[in-house]
Amino acid sequence: MTHKSMRSFAGGLIVAASMCGAVYYFGPNEADNAKAVEKPSIDEMKNMLVSKGYVIHSEEEWREQEAAAKAARDSAEEKADEVKDEQKDEAAEVKEKIIYRTIITVTPGMNNVDVGKALEGANIIDSSMKFVNEVEKMGLSKNLRPGTYEVESGKSLQDIIEIIFK
Fold first, then answer.
1. Which residue, 92, 97, 141, is CA-closest to 116?
2. Which of 137, 139, 143, 136 lies closest to 110 in space, CA to CA?
3. pLDDT (tens digit, 9 = 90+) per residue, 35-89?
4. In angstroms, how far is the first alpha carbon of the chain from the final one?
5. Nearest partner of 128 among 99, 160, 166, judged by Cα
6. Which residue, among 95, 107, 114, 109, has the nearest Cα to 147 in the 3D structure?
7. Sign (positive/negative) of CA torsion 6, 8, 11, 17?
8. What angle do CA 79, 83, 86 make, to 5 degrees?
């Protein structure tokens, strides 16, 4: 590009920027074109809202409805409390203990750990480790004999050990 064409290009940019500035500052103003919007009156606003499905209440009507709703909630809570009290009374009356009864078969090669796990799996005892520790403490771990034994969960750990380790 030569220096003459460069000057022509720069001159064109200056002319274009000047025209844009003139239009911006001296052109039509949008604020003049904006129409003044009148605010609707209170009655007109109420009518518009009602026509769109809204319900309009005065302050006094609103307070009355709040009081009625609170009274309804309170009565529902009282009824729920009464029902809960009745259920607690019924639950207190019916206290049944579930007793599991099972038949344990001790096969050759089983030890007291295996028997404890079988008893725990049948819901006869709570913890197989308690069973194993009690058997070890009593020194009966070598007295385990193969056989079939009937035990139930209502018995104490000592009674269950006596049944299995006769």
1. 141
2. 143
3. 667 888 888 888 888 899 888 888 898 899 999 999 999 998 998 888 888 777 7
4. 115
5. 160
6. 107
7. negative
8. 140
Question: What beta strand segments (E) does 17-157 contain?
Answer: 101-106, 147-152
Looking at per-residue pLDDT, the higher value among 164 and 14 belongs to: 14
3-state helix, strand, coil in the chain (%, to 5): 65, 5, 30
Helices and strands (DSSP H and E) totals, the chain: 7, 2
Residues 6+ apart with CB under 8 A from 113: 128, 132
Would you state the structure tokens that stand for residue 3, as one six-digit string?
A: 């220096």
| Burial (Cβ within 10 Å: 0-12, 13-18, ≥19) of residue 112 | buried
What type of residue is 137?
A: K
- Gap between the Cα atoms of 79 and 98, Å rounded: 32
Instruction: Name the residue type at position 143.
Output: N
Is residue 144 within 8 A of residue 115, CB to CB? The reply is yes
- Residue 115: other Cβ atoms inside 10 A: 22
Sorted by where each starts, the structural domains of the chain and their CATH numbers stand as 40-95 (no CATH), 101-164 (3.30.1490.480)
- Pick the residue with more confidence: 145 or 35? 145
Sorted by sequence, the CB contacts under 8 Å of residue 121 that are 6+ apart come out as: none
